């Protein structure tokens, strides 16, 4: 690889304020060349605003944006050397597909012969050769999406920004386009910043996910990091489907228990007042004469590959995902267990607490390879796992 | 059998729904048109005598009537003077007030004001601008030490004066259509082209203008029809004078019908006007429409 430092993007304490709203609040991150970075977050958290500031479509109120070695904070969009795919595609309705794709090349006064050659290459890349003469209105949603992609690829800018490019497509097409975009990015070695509020898209496409909330970065890391070590209760609830269970912890004797359930200690006493997070897929349901936290089945939902159980524990509710079909009528009493490393503790402020270790209370739970099932029985509540 | 009657009933139902509009159109558009056409083939009967059928004699008269040709020429100049100018100004104003500028609501209002005024009122205002001694324009010229112009009395200037007033009146109206069309253009189009460093000028000609084409067409047809249809201001400003210098076709029709009491000759000119407008409409629907992108 040649020196592709011109693809590097750096944000330093970038903010965007509108009158009294702060859409983006002093966020910083570095994107290395060739990375596929996802900006993930709920609606209104400032993802689009961040992306638009990088593109130059919105001026940063404070902070500094660098692309390559250049400070581009005050540069117009056309001088930043990047392309963008809009959620609405932003195709020119009166121009044919071919004219739409080469629009930018004409603006940049690329000679006609070269234009034609690049068009042919890109059209083949995104499989649009048969539609070049059509108007956007005569295309399906997926085809329009491809035109928008082609338009950003043909510019040969090393950086491509995408703002929810797949949200107007149906579920199947979205899956297909996800793979296509990912493959294209890898093939062309592009640096991509991709905005989405869909955690599935984020997990499956990104090399790196930046999770945002209220204009701030909550967590920045590889997808599996976000899944296995959520930095806050918010991050935990945002990633995974169904979302991670978050139950309130109350103090009891020398340990913390699930609020309203006093029998089994699940965390050290210091965790009381905070929350315990367990992913539905990490919960094991055992008969009532087994070991673990006593629970009652409230409801079950069969999804084909697995069954989602709604469970009541004390005053709290949890969901458990069991592979295959299970028929547990509501009211059935059972016990729940999970591996200690599957339990996440969050403080009262919602932040992850790594200083505490969840209590291992069940001898039978040994889901993670390499971890023995040697835990303390439930009667030894309060003992802290090393 | 049952299917047949229900089909019949649907047809009847449809016809009934059409009836009110059809009756109104027939009474107030088609019947008068036909009556005018028939009228144009007669000479008026004097002193109670019945009108006399003369075939195309009225048209013969029309062709030989130098005043008619003068008026037709005036109307052509009037159309050429008002239409492109008012459309260009309307587009310019719309682009201006569509941009983010402080107090644009006020500017929009200001531009639109001439439209709300009735033509007669507007003409009265301009009467004051154009008045030879006390008029605003001549006062301003006087302040600059220039001698005044007889804006409405000088045959070589009068038509231009009328044209200027019409442009002033029409541009604001057309601006509203352009403004509506501009606001329906998604802002992402501008952003997408900005990302490629497209200049404003280039964006206007490659995107905005083509997307405004349906509006331009609509405005163009309206302007054309207005150029023939609206003569209210002539009643106030010039009454077609001096020496027919500002006379327009419809005003000439009015003069013939109600000043010279030559109803059939007025009908003849009306038929000619209708023919011209029909040609314009045909051109619009047959040629321009096909080349225009409608969203
Ligand atoms: N032009 C604007 N003027 C004022 N406030 C704005 C403007 N644009 C966005 N905002 C505010 O900034 C915040 C962030 O908006 P942004 O569009 O970045 O959200 P988002 O994360 O992209 O959400 P979504 O997933 O719904 O697209 C929102 O609270 C929004 O109301
Ligand atoms: Mg957004």
Automatic annotation (TrEMBL), chain A:
<keyword id="KW-0813">Transport</keyword>
<dbReference type="InterPro" id="IPR027417">
    <property type="entry name" value="P-loop_NTPase"/>
</dbReference>
<protein>
    <submittedName>
        <fullName>Carbohydrate ABC transporter ATP-binding protein, CUT1 family</fullName>
    </submittedName>
</protein>
<dbReference type="InterPro" id="IPR047641">
    <property type="entry name" value="ABC_transpr_MalK/UgpC-like"/>
</dbReference>
<dbReference type="Pfam" id="PF00005">
    <property type="entry name" value="ABC_tran"/>
</dbReference>
<dbReference type="InterPro" id="IPR003593">
    <property type="entry name" value="AAA+_ATPase"/>
</dbReference>
<keyword id="KW-0067">ATP-binding</keyword>
<feature type="domain" description="ABC transporter">
    <location>
        <begin position="9"/>
        <end position="239"/>
    </location>
</feature>
<dbReference type="GO" id="GO:0140359">
    <property type="term" value="F:ABC-type transporter activity"/>
</dbReference>
<keyword id="KW-1278">Translocase</keyword>
<dbReference type="GO" id="GO:0005524">
    <property type="term" value="F:ATP binding"/>
</dbReference>
<dbReference type="InterPro" id="IPR017871">
    <property type="entry name" value="ABC_transporter-like_CS"/>
</dbReference>
<dbReference type="InterPro" id="IPR003439">
    <property type="entry name" value="ABC_transporter-like_ATP-bd"/>
</dbReference>
<keyword id="KW-1003">Cell membrane</keyword>
<keyword id="KW-0547">Nucleotide-binding</keyword>
<keyword id="KW-0472">Membrane</keyword>
<dbReference type="InterPro" id="IPR012340">
    <property type="entry name" value="NA-bd_OB-fold"/>
</dbReference>
<dbReference type="Pfam" id="PF08402">
    <property type="entry name" value="TOBE_2"/>
</dbReference>
<dbReference type="GO" id="GO:0055052">
    <property type="term" value="C:ATP-binding cassette (ABC) transporter complex, substrate-binding subunit-containing"/>
</dbReference>
<dbReference type="InterPro" id="IPR008995">
    <property type="entry name" value="Mo/tungstate-bd_C_term_dom"/>
</dbReference>
<dbReference type="InterPro" id="IPR013611">
    <property type="entry name" value="Transp-assoc_OB_typ2"/>
</dbReference>
<dbReference type="GO" id="GO:0016887">
    <property type="term" value="F:ATP hydrolysis activity"/>
</dbReference>
TrEMBL record, chain B:
<feature type="transmembrane region" description="Helical">
    <location>
        <begin position="76"/>
        <end position="97"/>
    </location>
</feature>
<feature type="transmembrane region" description="Helical">
    <location>
        <begin position="265"/>
        <end position="287"/>
    </location>
</feature>
<keyword id="KW-0813">Transport</keyword>
<protein>
    <submittedName>
        <fullName>Carbohydrate ABC transporter membrane protein 1, CUT1 family</fullName>
    </submittedName>
</protein>
<keyword id="KW-1003">Cell membrane</keyword>
<feature type="transmembrane region" description="Helical">
    <location>
        <begin position="157"/>
        <end position="182"/>
    </location>
</feature>
<feature type="transmembrane region" description="Helical">
    <location>
        <begin position="203"/>
        <end position="225"/>
    </location>
</feature>
<keyword id="KW-1133">Transmembrane helix</keyword>
<dbReference type="Pfam" id="PF00528">
    <property type="entry name" value="BPD_transp_1"/>
</dbReference>
<keyword id="KW-0472">Membrane</keyword>
<comment type="similarity">
    <text>Belongs to the binding-protein-dependent transport system permease family.</text>
</comment>
<dbReference type="GO" id="GO:0005886">
    <property type="term" value="C:plasma membrane"/>
</dbReference>
<keyword id="KW-0812">Transmembrane</keyword>
<feature type="domain" description="ABC transmembrane type-1">
    <location>
        <begin position="72"/>
        <end position="284"/>
    </location>
</feature>
<feature type="transmembrane region" description="Helical">
    <location>
        <begin position="109"/>
        <end position="131"/>
    </location>
</feature>
<dbReference type="InterPro" id="IPR050809">
    <property type="entry name" value="UgpAE/MalFG_permease"/>
</dbReference>
<dbReference type="GO" id="GO:0055085">
    <property type="term" value="P:transmembrane transport"/>
</dbReference>
<dbReference type="InterPro" id="IPR035906">
    <property type="entry name" value="MetI-like_sf"/>
</dbReference>
<dbReference type="InterPro" id="IPR000515">
    <property type="entry name" value="MetI-like"/>
</dbReference>
């Amino acid at each position: 690889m040649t020196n592709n430092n011109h693809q590097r993007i750096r944000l330093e304490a970038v903010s965007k304020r509108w009158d009294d709203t702060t859409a983006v609040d002093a966020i910083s991150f570095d994107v290395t060349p060739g990375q596929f970075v996802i900006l993930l977050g709920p609606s209104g958290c400032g993802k689009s605003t961040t992306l638009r500031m990088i593109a130059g479509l919105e001026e940063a109120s404070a902070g500094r944006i660098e692309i390559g070695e250049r400070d581009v904070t005050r540069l117009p969009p056309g001088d930043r050397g990047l392309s963008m795919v809009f959620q609405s595609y932003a195709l020119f309705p009166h121009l044919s597909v071919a004219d739409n794709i080469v629009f930018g090349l004409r603006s940049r006064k690329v000679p006609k012969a070269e234009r034609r050659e690049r068009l042919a290459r890109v059209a083949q890349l995104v499989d649009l050769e048969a539609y070049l003469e059509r108007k956007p209105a005569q295309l399906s949603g997926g085809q329009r999406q491809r035109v928008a992609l082609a338009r950003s690829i043909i510019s040969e800018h090393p950086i491509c920004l995408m703002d929810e490019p797949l949200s107007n497509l149906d579920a199947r097409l979205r899956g297909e386009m996800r793979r296509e975009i990912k493959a294209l990015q890898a093939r062309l070695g592009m640096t991509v910043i991709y905005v989405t509020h869909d955690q599935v898209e984020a997990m499956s496409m990104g090399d790196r996910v930046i999770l945002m909330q209220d204009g701030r970065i909550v967590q920045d890391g590889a997808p599996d990091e976000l899944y296995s070590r959520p930095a806050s209760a918010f991050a935990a609830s945002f990633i995974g489907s169904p979302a991670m269970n978050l139950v309130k912890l109350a103090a009891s004797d020398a340990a913390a228990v699930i609020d309203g359930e006093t029998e089994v200690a699940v965390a050290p006493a210091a965790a009381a007042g905070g929350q315990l997070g367990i992913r539905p897929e990490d919960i094991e349901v055992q008969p009532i004469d087994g070991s673990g936290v006593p629970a009652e089945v409230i409801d079950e939902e069969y999804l084909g590959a697995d069954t989602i159980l709604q469970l009541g524990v004390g005053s709290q509710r949890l969901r458990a995902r069991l592979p295959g079909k299970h028929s547990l009528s509501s009211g059935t009493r059972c016990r729940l267990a999970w591996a200690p490393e599957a339990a996440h503790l969050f403080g009262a402020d919602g932040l992850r607490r790594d200083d505490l270790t969840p209590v291992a209370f069940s001898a039978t739970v040994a889901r993670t390879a390499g971890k023995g099932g040697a835990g303390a029985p439930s009667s030894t509540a309060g003992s802290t796992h090393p | 059998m049952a299917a047949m009657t229900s089909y019949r009933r649907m047809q009847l139902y449809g016809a009934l729904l059409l009836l009110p509009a059809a009756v109104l159109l027939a009474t107030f558009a088609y019947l008068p048109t036909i009556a005018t056409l028939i009228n144009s083939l007669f000479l008026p009967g004097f002193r109670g005598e019945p009108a006399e059928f003369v075939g195309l004699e009225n048209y013969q008269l029309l062709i030989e009537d130098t005043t008619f040709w003068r008026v037709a020429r005036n109307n052509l100049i009037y159309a050429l003077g008002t239409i492109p100018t008012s459309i260009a100004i309307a587009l310019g104003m719309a682009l201006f007030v569509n941009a983010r500028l402080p107090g644009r609501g006020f500017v929009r209002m200001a531009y639109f004001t001439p439209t709300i005024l009735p033509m007669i009122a507007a003409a009265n205002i301009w009467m004051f601008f154009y008045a030879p001694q006390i008029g605003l324009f001549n006062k301003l010229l006087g302040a600059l030490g220039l001698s005044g112009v007889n804006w409405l009395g000088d045959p070589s200037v009068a038509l231009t004066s009328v044209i200027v007033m019409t442009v002033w009146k029409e541009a604001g109206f057309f601006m509203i259509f352009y403004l509506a069309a501009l606001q329906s253009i998604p802002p992402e189009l501008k952003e997408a082209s900005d990302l490629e460093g497209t200049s404003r000028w280039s964006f206007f000609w490659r995107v905005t203008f083509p997307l405004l084409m349906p509006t331009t067409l609509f405005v163009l047809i309206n302007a054309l029809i207005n150029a023939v249809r609206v003569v209210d201001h002539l009643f106030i400003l010039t009454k077609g004078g001096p020496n027919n210098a500002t006379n327009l076709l419809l005003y000439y029709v009015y003069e013939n019908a109600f000043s010279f009491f030559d109803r059939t000759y007025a009908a003849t000119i009306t038929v000619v006007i209708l023919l011209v407008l029909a040609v314009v409409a045909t051109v619009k629907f047959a040629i321009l429409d096909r080349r225009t992108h409608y969203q």
